[in-house]
User: Which sequence fits this backbone?
């Protein structure tokens, strides 16, 4: 079994798409729109075959997102090397994103950083 894709609702669909393309090398499809419901989405594909669906629709609830809450906590992106973790993290920080943990080796052996990005959602950049 494999996870086919992960989906994320966002308020600003094109801004979210541009983030994943610019910083993490995603390739975007042309998008989908259901004119009856106002639902819109893009599928973003990554080099190794992983896919992320970003979606938006009118009338969504947008509750505050505490870092430590139930539900999905973050999505981790493997960027291949410690150098890439450091480079991408520095780029995100320089562009004004909230780096909540600088690149480091965690207790379970991952080299990673954590950043709050798209509408207060957390991503992890790891080797």
Assistant:
């Amino acid at each position: 079994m494999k996870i086919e894709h992960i989906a994320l609702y966002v308020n600003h669909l094109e801004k979210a798409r541009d983030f994943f393309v610019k910083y993490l090398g995603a390739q975007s499809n042309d998008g989908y729109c259901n004119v009856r419901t106002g639902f819109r989405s893009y599928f973003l594909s990554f080099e190794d075959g992983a896919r992320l669906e970003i979606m938006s629709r009118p009338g969504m609830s947008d509750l505050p997102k505490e870092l430590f809450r139930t539900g999905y906590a973050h999505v981790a992106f493997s960027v291949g090397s410690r150098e890439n973790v450091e480079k991408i993290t520095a780029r995100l920080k320089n562009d004004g994103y909230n780096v909540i943990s600088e690149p480091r080796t965690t207790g379970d052996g991952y080299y990673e950083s954590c950043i709050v990005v798209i509408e207060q959602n957390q991503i992890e950049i790891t080797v």
Remarks:
- The first strand starts at residue 6 and ends at 9.
- The first helix runs from residue 13 to 24.
- The helical segments are 13-24, 82-94.
- The chain has a mean pLDDT of 95.
